Amino acid sequence: MGEDKTLEYLLERELRVVNSYVAAKRKTLTELLKEDYPHILTLSGDIHMFRKSELMLAKEVIGEDAERLMLPIYIELIPAQTVTTGVIREEVATKLISTLLGIHHTTPLYVYPVQLAELRRKIGTLIQYVVSPEVLKEIRDYEEVC
Amino acid sequence: MLRLARPTKIEFIRLRRRLATARRLHRVLRDRLLILTQELVALYREVVEHRLRVHEEIVRCERELIRASSYVAPWTFEEFSNVKIASFNVVVGSRIVAGVKLPLLEHEIVEGRYDPSAYPVTLKEVSECYEDVIKRIIRLAEAEISLLEVGKEVQKVKRKVNALENLIIPRLRATIKYLRMKFEEREREDKIRRKRIKQVLSRKARI
Predict the structure, then answer these.
(1) What is the mean pLDDT of residues A63-76?
(2) CATH number of the domain where residue B72 is located
(3) Is B34 within 8 Å of A77 when comparing Cβ atoms?
(4) How far does A41 lie from chain B, in Å, by closest CA?
(5) Fewer CB within 10 Å, N side or C side of chain B?
(6) Distance (Å) of CA B143 to CA A64, B138, B148
(7) Domain housing B159
(8) Non-local CB neighbours of A79 within 8 Å, separated by 6+ positions
(9) Is B205 among the domain residues?
(10) What is the pTM (predicted TM-score) of this model?
(11) Which conformational region is residue B99 in: left (phi greater than 0), alpha (psi within -120 to 50 degrees), or beta?
(12) A49/B contact by beta carbon, under 8 A
């Protein structure tokens, strides 16, 4: 296999991995709390389970807004930054995360490595990292050009 | 530098395209490596903490057990352990972190029906202590397997990132630079040749 093909193959495979763990259909917190084994299906067909204790914690924090909180919460990683910075764009999710971290509530909410580690500890199964759509868009544009 | 059959413009364009792909791939992989490394460090800390706590708690439970056994008959122990918990299940699921499938273990304890006043309080304390140990061991098992899985993935991704960073991208850059210099040189030669021809032609015209 030529180097060209190897690179293309690796890129394609990597993108498949990047997209594979995105949920096929997200569920609300209320829906998940009703399930015996709260889970969602990913695009690759795998099952992503949520810890019940974490769901209960989220319910305690956001209360009435549980109907509107879509899970998993996506944290977009911004590659342009020197340190890993994540951004959360959904209103209810930012409310939950800012309360858990004890920071000022803004939308979009930017979270830094220390905060990411704390989030992972508190609601590890409720969050999922996604590669920034900007990068994916760039790659798509590039593929179209080629 | 890459070996080139012919230093042509087409080759140059192809190489630039290849460099762009390599750079994008590097960016995606680097992001994934960052998440995975963070997960690895957090899991390592979790494993160490759980392991220490498990050891501490086992020692505490043993102490409690010895204390309780000094004034509780062995058959009471057996009876209590039969009625205390109706069922103990471990649900094995999975969670996905940055494309890596990790196990998720959740315990379900169904308390049995019994008269608490029929048994000494120390027995309840001992059983609660062991329950905590079991819960912690489940978390430890989950963290240890996850640590192994994430470690393997980090190794794989790191190898790819290093290959791109230290081998493929510099090699492509060097080849592109070489081609660019080659084209510039060719252009300069052309310019000089054209000047020379012009000079020769003007000299001939004068004669």
Answers:
(1) 87
(2) 1.10.287.3240
(3) yes
(4) 10
(5) C
(6) 33, 9, 9
(7) 9-197
(8) A131, A132, A134, A135, B27, B30, B31
(9) no
(10) 0.79
(11) left
(12) yes
